[in-house]
Design brief:
Blueprint lengths: L3 E5 L4 H12 L3 E4 L6 H11 L3 E4 L2 E4 L10 E6 L9 E5 H14 L9 E3 L6 H13 L3 E3 L5 H9 L4 E4 L1 H4 L9 E4 L12 E7 L4 E5 L2 E2 L4 E5 L2 E5 L6 E2 L6 E2 L2 E10 L5 E6 L4 E3 L2 E3 L1 H8 L5 E11 L3 E10 L8 H9 L10 E4 L13 H14 L2
Length: about 375
């Protein structure tokens, strides 16, 4: 049976050599974040159960390994925004199909285009850039990570295509690229015309909906307000064999709407909703409003359990300057200018940094646990 090879090597030629060697041998690869803390790394390796673990210093054989199936290409750990990461198994057929339909949607020309990879390869959004180039024969330049100066230098040297997360878009000149894929976070309210908003999950093989429209071979439906995806890019299984599909549909856990033309609008995670006083509230519009406050550098809105209200709308704020912290009354008034009264926060918590998982996604469940732990410690 084929083996799983865990790879803790930074993006670059060495990473590519190890991946291609594993694939040539019929094995699958699990890219692992080289910067993980020791305990998190140990837990992830135990969960993934690779036969070998390759680092920059050598290869380590591991006990209790579990094989993969013939045809498996990758095992990608989810970002862990809702708890412990899970290994997602993608086949060669799935990653090739994804590479082709995304390249077709962007009208990629291997003779004139060049990809720039500058996102982590231990997430599907970053690794997909190299895979597109590998499958279609399009040149790829690889940076060890996002650096605005280096990204612009690559653009000036001929890179035409790049994949970014929304938080990095404002640090570069978008006009230097032909197309910029954006995913992994809330889209900016104003963005350049050459940007492409993508939607997808690790389980869908990355972004498979561009600007609200499913790519070739991908089907989208919304059932009871939840987005479902179907198509040949979907993962084969979870590494722990837990259920993934409902029939042949992936139930994403994201709330969404389809208009009459089939355009998908994603509204956020279903488990992020706040229920207070009989009202159900989405945190994203409140967060967007609060970000307009000059004293707020970052913010999350969560529901804190409450005996009377069910949950209390709580603003968790990272201030720009610790010497000037906005008052709760200010924030309530700001929200009520554009949102219903019941969406205005009833509680304010100030912290130094919001917990974020892969590609900068807010780890909302981790934040809730952190807040609950702080409250327990104060008792």
């Amino acid at each position: 049976m084929p083996d799983l090879v865990a790879l803790s090597v930074p993006p670059g030629p060495g990473f590519v050599r190890h991946v291609l060697a594993a694939w040539d041998a019929g094995d699958a690869v699990a890219p692992v974040n080289p910067g993980l803390p020791a305990k998190a790394l140990s837990d992830l390796l135990d969960d993934l159960a690779p036969a070998r673990w390759i680092t920059e210093t050598g290869t380590v054989s591991r006990d209790h390994a579990r094989p993969v199936a013939t045809g498996d290409a990758l095992v990608i750990a989810t970002s862990g925004t809702t708890g412990r990461p899970k290994g997602v198994i993608l086949t060669h057929e799935a990653v090739r199909y994804a590479a082709r339909i995304t390249s077709s949607a962007l009208t990629v020309d291997p003779g004139s285009d060049r990809w720039l990879a500058c996102l982590p390869f231990f997430h599907i959004g970053g690794l997909s850039v190299w895979i597109r180039g590998h499958v279609t024969g399009t040149p790829v330049s690889i940076l060890p990570g996002f650096d605005a100066t280096a990204v612009m230098e690559e653009a000036h040297e001929g890179a035409t295509l790049v994949s970014l997360v929304p938080t990095t878009l404002g640090r570069i000149d978008p006009s230097e690229f032909r197309k910029i894929l954006l995913g992994g976070g809330r889209m900016p309210s104003v963005r350049a015309a050459n940007t492409v908003a993508t939607y997808g999950l690790t389980e869908s093989g990355g972004g498979v909906v561009y600007e609200g429209r499913p790519l070739s071979g991908i089907a989208v439906r919304v059932v009871d307000g939840i987005v479902h995806l179907q198509g040949p890019t979907l993962a084969r299984a979870y590494r722990d064999d837990s259920p993934m599909l409902d029939g042949d549909w992936l139930v994403t856990g994201d709330r969404g709407e389809l208009d009459a033309s089939g355009m998908l609008t994603v509204l956020g995670r279903a488990d992020d909703l706040i229920t207070t006083g009989g009202e159900t509230i989405s945190p994203e519009p409140i967060e967007e409003r609060l970000r307009s406050h000059a004293s707020i550098a970052d913010v999350a809105v969560v529901g804190i359990p409450d005996e009377e209200w069910g949950e209390v709308v709580t603003a968790v704020v990272v201030p720009v300057d610790g010497s000037h912290i906005p008052e709760l009354a200010e924030l309530r008034a700001l929200v009520k200018e554009t949102r219903p009264d019941f969406e205005a926060p009833h509680r304010l918590i100030v912290i130094d940094e919001l917990p974020r998982a892969g590609l900068g996604k807010l780890a909302r469940s981790v934040l809730k646990l952190q807040i609950a732990g702080d409250a327990e410690a104060d008792r």
